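Bumping with the actual sequence this time:
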Amino acid sequence: MFQMFVDGGVFSMSLLSLELIALLFAAWKAPAWVKELGVLALVTGIVTQFIGLVVAFGAVIDTGGDVAPVVFFGGLRSMFITLSYALFIFIISLVIRILQKPRI
């Protein structure tokens, strides 16, 4: 599990973990912020994925196109780890919102 954290990028995964902690704290203290924090995590995951794509394509250009597919798809894998974690946080926010809705 720690290896996936490192593979996803320490900065972006740490940022998403802080957003998860804030989401769980908001579910307890400020329920109105749960939706916004879930969307923020999703947007953070999408932005980090685009940054990863720019870096990957830049590496391909810098090497003149002679990049092994294993290396290229390894970079794509790390992008999707971060996005998957962001989607996981967003789903948690949706579940918390469903559980906090008043029942009739």
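The tokens above came from a reply further down the thread. The mean pLDDT is 88.
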